Structures are given as structure tokens and as C-alpha cells.
Amino acid sequence: MPKSKRNRQVTLSKTKKKGRDHKETIVNGIKEAAEKYGSVYVFSFENMRNQKFKEFREQLKSSSRFFLGSNKVMQVALGRSAADEIRPGLHRVSKLLRGDTGMVFTNLPKEEVERLFKEFEEYDFARTGSNATEKVDLKEGPLEQFTHEMEPFLRKQGMPVRLNKGVVELVSDYVVCEEGKPLSPEASRILRLMEIKMATFRLHLICRWSPDEFELYIDGPDESDVECS
């Protein structure tokens, strides 16, 4: 009789070692990048979309290296103070790794990096819990954008619909979402069916470091939070 997979034992020491090895790989990668590239930028992101971000990374692969993950691990790699920083001034960068942030080491000119980040903007369907950017309401009557096969699904989403001679019909006005309010799972599904995109994936530069300069961008914290020269 084959052994049950449910009873298989997992050695916790192995899983811990794997996590530690992964962190060490990141730390070593950051240290190598700090020596290889001429500058490093910290950036924040909103409405992250992994596939779109992967495409952006690939676009800059020949000249840059991105790091995105545990802020704590990245801070340790750079050094949290002037005493343990791996290069002079990098502890200032470390202090700005808060919340939804990442780093990019690059040899690209400053103007090129600023242009790429400023122009980067990808629209996508909003997810459950995101705030609606506009009010979407549907008026009573036929909904010709939906086929008759969709009627049961729309009804499950809470929409007051019926079939009238093979046409999906709204029997009363219906508000899909209100501007500024979180989207319900049902609302996000309906918006997707209507092909209404309310999420914008953006990247914002926070700071730039090079061996002879440290620059804090407008999207960063107050200068009192970080030593500046």
C-alpha cells in the first residue's frame, strides 16, 4: 500500500536553511551591484502588476539590475548606518526602503532613468478592495454589451437582470460602484466584463545615489528624515 503524502515529515531545519540561503543570495547580489553600477535609485510603486513589471525589467536588463522584496534584507545589504554601509552614503538609501519600494542599480544617465520612470504607466482592471476611480451606474433597459449566456452570471453578481426575447435586460437602475469606495468582488467582476480599467500601475522615483551625489526626489520623505549634503 503506497504511503500517504499527508503523513510525510518535513524537516523544518531544511526550510529555514532555504530561506536563509535566499536572503544571502539577495544580499550578495546587492553588494555586487553596488560595485558594478554607477548609481542606484529607490522607487515606490502602486497597483503592482507582476507581468508588466517583468517586461519593464527586461527592457533595462542590459544596463540595470532591479531588486524587489524584503525591505529589511535590502537595508541590511546596503548598511543601515554610516558605520556598516558598503559604500559611502548608501545608508541614506537604506533609510528610504519603506513600504512598497524597490531598488534599481543602473549605468544609464540620470535623465534617461527619470524619463523612463515618468513615462511608465500601465492601465489594468482594478482588483477587489481597490477604490473606484469613478461612479459606474447602469440604467434600466437592455444591456446589449452582454450576451444571453451571461444572464445567469450577472444575476449571481447581484444585478437585477432577466432575459427578454434573448436580450439581457436590467429591470431597474443598478450602481456597480461609487467613486472613492472599495470595490466588492462582484463589482470588480462586472467592471472586467464591461472592460472598464480603473487601476494604473505606476513607478515613482524616491531618491538617487552615486559616489559623488545623493538626490532626494519630490516623492520621498521630508529632508529632515534623511541626512542630505
Automatic annotation (TrEMBL):
A Gene Ontology biological process annotation? Answer: ribosome biogenesis
Taking the record's annotation, the residue ranges forming a coiled coil are none
Primary location class: cytoplasm
- Chain residue ranges for the region called Disordered: 1-22
Q: List compositional bias (Basic residues) regions by residue number.
A: 1-20
Listed A to Z, the keywords are: Cytoplasm, Nucleus, Ribosome biogenesis
Query: Where is the protein situated, by its record's location annotation?
Result: Cytoplasm; Nucleus, Nucleolus
Which Gene3D superfamilies does the record match to this protein?
A: 3.30.70.1730, 3.90.105.20
- Where the record annotates domain Large ribosomal subunit protein uL10-like insertion, the positions are 126-196
| GO (cellular component) term, any one | nucleolus
Free-text function comment from the UniProt entry: Ribosomal protein P0 is the functional equivalent of E.coli protein L10. Component of the ribosome assembly machinery. Nuclear paralog of the ribosomal protein P0, it binds pre-60S subunits at an early stage of assembly in the nucleolus, and is replaced by P0 in cytoplasmic pre-60S subunits and mature 80S ribosomes.
The family line of this record is: Belongs to the universal ribosomal protein uL10 family.
Q: How does it assemble?
A: Associates with the pre-60S ribosomal particle.
Protein name per the record: Ribosome assembly factor mrt4
Q: Which organism is it from?
A: Flemingia macrophylla
